[in-house]
Every structure is written in structure tokens, then in C-alpha cells.
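Encode chain A's predicted structure.
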Amino acid sequence: MPRKNSPRSENLRRAMAQEAARVMAEHGIQDFRAAKRKAADRLGVGVEGALPSNTEVEAALVEYQRLFAADSHGATLRAQRSAALRAMRSLSAFSPRLVGPVLNGTATAHTDVQLHLFTDHPESVALNLLDRGVGHDVGEHRLRVDAERFRIYPTVRFELDRQVIDATVFPLDGIRQAPVSPVDGRPMRRADASELEALLTVQESPRV
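Encoded structure for chain A:
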């Protein structure tokens, strides 16, 4: 029979999740593992097994934003989603999808706008940006594709409306299977431009 965590252990996990969330919100750390380690150091905890899960940290981040940054968070998220939509329209030839914290609503002011693009000729994305005079950097991301495998994908990074756009380029058939989310281990949620437009409409509607 599995052993239940003690109330002290649960309280410690909760405190670490809250501190990791604060670190992500205030200091621009986007990697969950790095934020948890920093939180553990600050709380004087060195036991790996006591660290909260990524989903616990994400839940704490949502609560932090609700309590301490509701107005600024909403404005930041609108700006990020608006920049994402503009970028997606300009890259429509590559069937762009929005992913990550900007889509999920947990983005901080330091979060990059994450896009997935699809083409069997990844160099065509950079050429598209060059043709339009958009300065950019190329790189790569290592993403988990299932429980056991990782794969390297090319990326392009550029700025639009003072937001950093970080676009990962997949082959055309990559649109059928999203990589694994670092938060909950499930396939990443993806949204096309029409879904993002709907999110922005809901977000901008006046509350009764």
C-alpha cells in the first residue's frame, strides 16, 4: 500500500510550488525544473523527492497571477496573444499553431510567444522572414515526442510588437502529433489563428 505524505511534507511541497511560481513570475525563469531548484535552495530544501510536480507549480502560478497581478497579467497576455496572431497571419503559409503559456493563459511578462510551424523545407521559414526584412536568429529545440524519445527541431526567433516570437519548425506530418507538454506529459495543446481570435474576443469582452 503506498505511503501517504505527511502534512508537513504536503505543506513543504505547497510552499515550494508557491515559491517556484513567484520565481517564474518575477524573475523570468521559464524552465520548471530551474524554478523548482531555485525555490528549494531558497527554502533550504535539498530532497529531490520533495519537489512539487510541474502541474503543482503551474497551479500555483495561476493563483499567484490571480492574487498579485490580475490587471497587469491580463494586459500582458492580451499583448502577447495579439502579437502571436499577427505573427501567425504573416506566416500563414506554414499552418502556424500557438502553444505554451501564452495559449494556456499562464504566461508572465518574460514569456516568449511559442509557435509551431509546418513545412518539409525548414529553410523556407527563414527565407520568408528575410524576404520581408525581419531580423531573426536560427537555432534548435529538443522536444519530447513520447514517453521515451526526444527529437531536435529547427527554430527561428524574432521580435514583433515588442514580443519575442519563438517558432519551432516541424515537418508537414508533424501537425498530426504534438510533442509532449513539459507540464503534464500530455500532447501539447495547439491553437490555429481562428481559435486564437476567439480567445482574444472573449478576453476583450467587457465583464458584466
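The two ends are 50 Å apart (CA to CA).
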